[in-house]
Design goal:
This protein is an alpha/beta fold. It has helices at about 15-25, 55-65, 85-95, 120-130, 135-140, 165-170; strands at about 10, 15, 30-35, 45, 70-75, 100-105, 105-110, 110-115, 145.
Length: about 180
Amino acid sequence: MGKDKGLIEFNGKPLIEHITEKVRLITDSVFIITNQPGYDRFGFPCFPDIKKDCGPIGGIFTGLHHSSTLKNLVLSCDTPFIPHHLIKHLVEQSGVEDALVPRYDEKTEPLCGVYDRNCKETLKMLIDERELKLQNALEKLNTRFLDLHRFDDFDKRWFANINTPDELEKYQIKPKD
């Protein structure tokens, strides 16, 4: 993309704002895990990865390390279509599991989930062993899956990642002539 994805403007605002605006409707305890400058302008605490070059599992570990709450909502900044009602439902449904993660058609979405701070040690162990696939972590954690087909309005686009300029263009709202 040429620069950090969360700062790229999408439909009138940076990608990260699409997520933080929805999360702020649920909680005031929001922070951003980033290794890039520029995120402090959004008014949230920002933390770099504790373990570098570990991908999403490293980001989740860092978030849990800095968290003061037992249950923690984790969202990727490049999925601006995740609806507020799904985020709220995840938070409301989280319980004794280590991770509550959406699933549809056998596809899991671990970067939109609720993680218990107590799974931090398991994530650290996997990082130390360089086992960095988040799917493998979910298998080692007490993970519960939320079936998204139970939502009448479910749309796979909720999890559309914006990773390329073509995807950015594809999902932009076009001004009407």
